[in-house]
Amino acid sequence: MRAKKSPSLISPTGVIKLMTHAMMGAALGLVFGLALVLSNPAVANLLNHGGDSIAAVFVVTLVTTFAIGATLTGVVFIITEDKEF
Fold it and tell me: Which parts of the chain span the membrane according to its record (predicted)?
């Protein structure tokens, strides 16, 4: 009889994998925000006239959205990777 393998999400390596996906998503969110500001002058104008708090909300919103999306995608990847074996 086979021993039950613990789910990979609960293990320390699973948490490290999820954190890696979250960091990649955060970096992607920063790059997307920079590309959006550089390519769209209206966004740059809004950020210039909005002040520091508007810029912080813009960055935090993009980074959080992309990080959550990448983390959920990482969960799906890890679960499907476990089921292949």
Answer: 54-79
